[in-house]
C-alpha cells in the first residue's frame, strides 16, 4: 500500500515538472518568436534615440514643369535634457541667441523627456542663428534639417495653391486638398544611449526620409503672370472692391490661369485676414451675370430654331412690358428696328426677352440646367459655390424675361466659363479642372492623372458655329469692340450687372464683365474678366473689362506665338478710333511705284537699288495709319 502511494507521488511530481517544463518552453517560444518584435521595440525605446529628419513636401509645378511651390532647408533645435550638464547657463545662452524668454527656454532644457523639440522658439532657424548655436559646442543640443514651404511667385495663384502651417501641414487650397499625397515620410538619425540619455557609442544609423508626391497643374504660369499683371493694373486704375479673371481651354476644361483681387502671399499668410485668404472668388463668388449670360439664351434659341439671326426682326422702342413690369433697354429710346444678330451685337435686353419668350419657360430652364447653372461644376478645388436659381415652378413670365438677359439668377464665374465653353467648342460641356497629374519625383511614375471629362452634349456643332460667328460680330461690330485685336479673330460678350443689397438693386454699383475667346473660328482660349464696382469710370463691361481681356489675349498671342488669321472680320471704326489699314504687296515694285501704293504708311528703306525684294510686315496684315513698313531693296 505504502509502495503504491509512493509511486503515485513520484508520478505526480514527474508529470508536474514535465507540465511545468512544457509551459516554460511554450512561454520561451512565445517570447522569443511571437512577442519578439514588440518586446524588442520596447527595449529599443529605452536605449535608442531618434533625431527626426523631416521629408520634403511634394512640389507643385505648372503644365510646363515650372515650380510654383517648393521647399527650402531650414534648421530646428532639439534638446536631450539629460545630456546637458549646466542647464542654467545653456538656457541663458540659447535665450540670448534666439531672443526669447529665459524662463521659457529653461523649461525646455529641464523638461523630463528623452527628446525635446524647441517649439516655437527654435523652429525654422536661418543659417546665421544655427551657426551661433552650433558654435556653443554644448552636448545635448542638436540642430536638425527641417523643410519649409516656399512659394517663389509670392502672391501669384495663391488662392489655388493655398498655404501650409509651421508643421508643413496643408491648410487651404491644393495644399490642403492633396495633403496626403504631398506629405512625405520623415526619416531619422538613430543612436544608442543609457537610461540617463548619455550616448553609449558614436555609431549612428541614418534612415532617409521619403519625399512627397509632385503635383503638375494645368496652369500655364506665363499666362498666369499676364493675368496677375492686368489685375494689378486694374486695382491701381479703378480701385474696385473685387476683381477676377479666368483663362481656360474650352476644348478640355483645363484651367490655364485663375486669379482674383484681393489676394495674399502664401509665404506670409499670417499677415492677411481669413476672408481674403479663404475666398477663391472665381469659384466662390455668386452674382447676377448680366449680359454675358445672354450667350446661353442665344445658343438655346439657335438650337431650337426659334429665331433666325438674319431674317427675323425686332423693333426696340426702349423697353418691353411683361405682366405689368417695364423692362428697359440700356440705350434710352431703344435701338429701333433690328435683326436678331443686331440684338446680340447691341446687347438689347428687350430683344433677349423676346428670345426667352419664344423658347418658353420649360425649354429655357432645361438649357440653363444643361449648360450647368443649377449645380456645381465639380472643379477639383475646395470651396466651390453652387449659384442660385429659381425652382422651375417658381418661374413666371417676369422671372423668365429677366433670366433671358442674365438677371434674377446668381451664378459663379467658373459656371459661366464652363457654360460658355460648351456654347463655342462644338456644344460639349466639360468639367473644369486644375490638376493634370501626380507623379513620384524620383521615378516620374504617374500615380494619379486627370483627363478631360465630357459631362453632356448641349447643342450641335452647327449651332455652336453660329454662336461663335454671332459673338465675333459683337467684337467687330457691337458692344465688345474694345476687345478687338487687329489681324486676329476674337469673339466675346460684354456684361454689366447691378448688385443686390438687402433685396434691392444698388444704384451706381455694378459688376462689369467680359467673356472673350480666340481664335473665334476655332477657339483655344476663353478669357473671362469681372470687376466689382470700378471707380472713376463709366461702369460698363465694354469700357472696363473688355480692354483688360484684350490685353490678356494679346499676351496669350505673344506667349504662344499664335499666327495672325487669314480671314478677319473687319471692325467698324468711329472718328475717335485709331484706324488700321491693310498692307499692300510691295515686293516686285519699284521705289516710285511703292510711294504711290503707301500713302497711308511711312516707308523705311534698307539696302540700295530700285526694286523691292522684301517687306515687313507682310502683305494682307492690318497696321495703324502712318505706321512704318520696312522694305529691302535689291
CATH class of the largest domain: Alpha Beta
Given the helix and strand composition, which structural class is it? alpha+beta
Could you say what the CATH architecture of the largest domain is?
Answer: 3-Layer(aba) Sandwich
CATH superfamily of the largest domain: DD-peptidase/beta-lactamase superfamily
Task: Describe the secondary-structure layout.
Blueprint: H1 2-34, H2 36-47, E1 48-53, E2 60-61, E3 67-79, H3 87-98, H4 102-110, E4 116-117, H5 127-134, E5 141-150, H6 158-161, E6 163-164, E7 170-172, H7 173-177, H8 179-182, E8 187-192, E9 205-207, E10 214-217, H9 221-238, E11 242-248, E12 255-261, H10 274-278, H11 281-284, H12 294-303, E13 313-316, E14 319-322, E15 325-328, E16 336-339, H13 340-346, H14 349-359, H15 361-370, H16 397-404, H17 413-424, E17 428-430, E18 435-439, E19 446-449, E20 454-457, H18 461-477, E21 491-501, E22 504-518, E23 525-532, H19 545-560, E24 580-582, H20 591-597, E25 602-606, E26 612-616, E27 622-624, E28 628-633
Parallel strand pairs: 2-10, 25-28
Antiparallel strand pairs: 1-8, 2-3, 3-4, 3-5, 6-7, 8-9, 10-18, 11-12, 11-23, 13-16, 14-15, 17-20, 18-19, 21-22, 22-23, 24-27, 26-28
Helix pairs in contact: 3-4, 9-19, 12-14, 12-18, 13-18, 14-16
Amino acid at each position: 500500500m505504502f509502495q503504491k502511494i509512493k509511486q503515485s507521488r513520484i508520478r505526480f511530481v514527474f508529470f508536474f515538472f514535465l507540465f511545468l517544463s512544457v509551459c516554460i518552453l511554450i512561454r520561451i517560444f512565445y517570447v522569443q518568436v511571437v512577442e519578439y518584435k514588440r518586446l524588442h521595440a520596447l527595449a529599443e525605446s529605452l536605449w535608442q534615440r531618434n533625431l527626426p529628419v523631416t521629408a520634403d513636401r511634394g512640389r507643385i509645378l505648372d503644365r510646363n514643369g515650372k515650380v510654383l511651390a517648393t521647399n527650402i532647408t531650414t534648421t530646428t533645435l532639439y534638446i536631450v535634457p539629460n545630456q546637458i550638464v549646466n542647464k542654467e547657463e545653456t538656457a541663458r545662452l540659447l535665450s540670448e541667441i534666439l531672443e526669447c524668454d529665459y524662463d521659457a527656454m529653461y523649461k525646455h532644457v529641464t523638461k523630463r523627456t528623452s527628446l525635446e523639440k524647441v517649439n516655437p522658439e527654435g523652429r525654422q532657424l536661418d543659417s546665421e542663428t544655427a551657426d551661433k548655436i552650433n558654435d556653443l559646442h554644448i552636448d545635448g543640443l542638436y540642430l536638425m534639417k527641417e523643410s519649409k514651404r516656399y512659394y517663389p511667385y509670392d502672391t501669384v495663384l495663391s488662392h489655388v495653391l493655398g498655404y501650409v502651417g509651421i508643421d508643413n501641414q496643408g491648410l487651404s487650397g491644393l495644399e490642403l486638398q492633396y495633403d496626403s499625397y504631398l506629405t512625405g515620410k520623415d526619416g531619422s538619425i538613430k543612436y544608442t544611449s543609457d537610461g540617463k540619455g548619455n550616448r553609449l557609442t558614436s555609431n549612428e544609423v541614418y534612415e532617409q526620409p521619403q519625399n512627397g508626391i509632385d503635383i503638375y497643374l494645368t496652369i500655364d504660369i506665363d499666362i498666369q503672370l499676364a493675368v496677375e499683371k492686368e489685375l494689378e493694373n486694374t486695382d491701381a486704375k479703378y480701385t474696385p472692391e473685387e476683381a477676377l479673371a479666368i483663362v481656360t481651354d474650352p476644348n478640355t476644361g483645363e484651367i490655364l490661369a485663375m486669379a482674383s483681387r484681393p489676394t495674399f502671399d502664401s509665404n506670409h499668410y499670417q499677415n492677411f485676414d481669413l476672408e481674403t485668404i479663404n475666398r477663391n472668388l472665381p469659384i466662390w463668388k455668386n452674382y447676377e451675370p448680366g449680359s454675358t449670360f445672354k450667350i446661353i439664351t442665344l445658343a438655346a434659341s439657335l438650337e431650337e430654331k426659334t429665331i433666325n439671326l438674319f431674317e427675323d426682326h425686332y423693333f426696340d422702342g426702349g423697353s418691353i412690358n411683361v405682366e405689368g413690369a417695364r423692362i428697359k433697354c440700356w440705350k434710352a429710346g431703344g435701338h429701333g428696328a433690328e435683326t436678331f444678330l443686331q440684338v446680340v451685337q447691341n446687347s438689347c435686353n428687350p430683344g433677349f426677352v423676346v428670345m426667352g419668350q419664344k423658347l418658353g419657360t420649360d425649354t429655357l430652364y432645361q438649357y440653363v440646367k444643361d449648360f450647368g447653372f443649377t449645380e456645381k461644376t465639380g472643379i477639383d478645388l475646395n470651396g466651390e459655390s453652387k449659384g442660385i436659381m429659381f425652382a422651375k415652378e417658381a418661374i413666371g413670365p417676369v422671372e423668365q424675361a429677366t433670366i433671358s438677359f442674365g438677371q434674377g439668377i446668381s451664378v459663379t464665374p467658373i459656371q459661366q466659363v464652363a457654360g460658355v465653353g460648351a456654347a463655342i467648342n462644338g456644344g460639349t460641356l466639360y468639367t473644369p479642372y486644375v490638376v493634370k497629374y501626380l507623379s513620384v519625383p524620383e521615378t516620374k511614375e504617374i500615380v494619379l492623372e486627370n483627363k478631360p471629362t465630357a459631362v453632356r452634349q448641349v447643342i450641335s456643332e452647327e449651332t455652336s458655329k453660329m454662336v461663335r460667328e454671332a459673338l465675333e460680330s459683337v467684337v467687330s461690330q457691337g458692344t465688345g469692340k474694345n476687345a478687338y485685336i487687329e489681324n486676329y479673330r476674337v469673339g466675346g460678350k460684354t456684361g454689366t450687372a447691378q448688385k443686390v443689397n438687402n433685396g434691392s438693386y444698388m444704384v451706381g454699383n455694378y459688376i462689369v464683365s467680359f467673356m472673350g475667346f480666340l481664335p473665334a473660328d476655332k477657339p483655344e482660349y476663353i478669357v473671362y474678366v469681372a470687376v466689382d464696382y470700378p471707380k472713376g469710370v463709366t461702369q460698363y463691361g465694354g469700357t472696363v473689362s473688355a480692354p483688360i481681356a484684350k490685353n490678356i489675349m494679346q499676351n496669350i498671342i505673344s506667349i504662344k506665338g499664335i499666327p495672325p488669321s487669314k480671314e478677319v472680320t473687319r471692325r467698324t471704326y468711329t472718328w475717335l478710333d485709331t484706324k488700321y489699314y491693310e498692307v499692300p504687296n510691295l515686293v516686285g515694285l519699284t521705289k516710285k511705284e511703292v510711294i504711290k501704293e503707301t500713302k497711308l504708311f511711312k516707308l523705311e528703306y534698307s539696302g540700295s537699288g530700285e526694286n523691292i525684294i522684301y517687306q515687313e510686315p507682310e502683305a494682307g496684315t492690318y497696321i495703324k495709319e502712318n505706321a512704318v513698313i520696312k522694305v529691302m531693296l535689291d
